[in-house]
Task: structure prediction
Amino acid sequence: MQKESKELLAKAGDYLSEIQALAQSPLTIMEVCGTHTVAIAKNALRELLPETVRLISGPGCPVCVTDSSDIDRYLYLAAQPKVITATFGDMIRVPGTDKNLQILRAEGADVRIVYSTQDALELARKNPDKEVAFLGIGFETTTPTVALSLETAKQEGIKNYSVLSMHKVVPPVLKLLAEDKELVVDAFLDPGHVCSIIGIKPIEFMAKDYALPGVVTGFGALDILEAIVMLLRQRAEGRSEIEIQYKRVAKAEGNPHAQRVVERVFEPVDASWRGIGMIPLSGLGIREDYWAWDAARKFALPVFHSPETPGCRCGDVLKGLLYPTQCPLFGKHCTPLKPVGPCMVSNEGSCAAYHRYSQRSVD
Result:
């Protein structure tokens, strides 16, 4: 074990030395994956890098980018009688305009934390006299399992199961970031889990059309350091490409089987992102063949127009325009124990990562 640790430290040292040598001029890199955000903070990578390399967080946390109106919509659903709301645990304390799922559960709503869509389906099988609504939140990584749950419900005739789809896809928001005049970014750490599903073809336009290189990156400290080296090498060689560092998992073609499952069940729709607004074709709606299992249609859910939380700068954090520590609420009125915005609630949120691992101000 000692030998392995020494080898890892030596490798990290090699990467850092090469970064130091190549980073003679400023380079701003954005990560668009919440797991990267946590890994960077946990391993103090910002503190290890030279001042010329600046890491900023983008809209990579699915809970954080869920719009206030969608949050109020699923809270409305959870308050309906004879409805079991099935959700992943990180949604429980996300604040809506007035309440959250935790408060609703204390008031008597039937809210269950599940660890998979199969758990949600099993709830529906065991409770035929109640409706089970699963909250579908996530990027391309989680949508295949949700799609499979809808196919299973249709095949087995489980009519008391439904999904409220708030799923989002990454390529459209990357395009928006590339065209944002406020944002200064030179390169991207692309999400390893997402690209393991979709491959690199859907994001190659970033390098070809906008001269913004990217590296599909794994989630260890060495993965991230190697990806930064790869981006710096691209700049030094005058290249702009989408490369894969995370080759042990991500393939150029992605996962064709998962892509087909998603295509059968979901279709692209416009979606609103917290702090960003409406992005065309950046969401996934449930196709007509599965409308009987679409919670929005089954319960005729109203469309909410909810305001953003006053003072919360989560939207600017998600766009990489400021660091969490620059939000006036950070660490004072907004903490993990009493979060004001979703970036402080989710384990993958930028604000939660900064609060947990580093409260040092970043300029």
Notes: The CA atoms of residues 178 and 209 lie 9 Å apart.
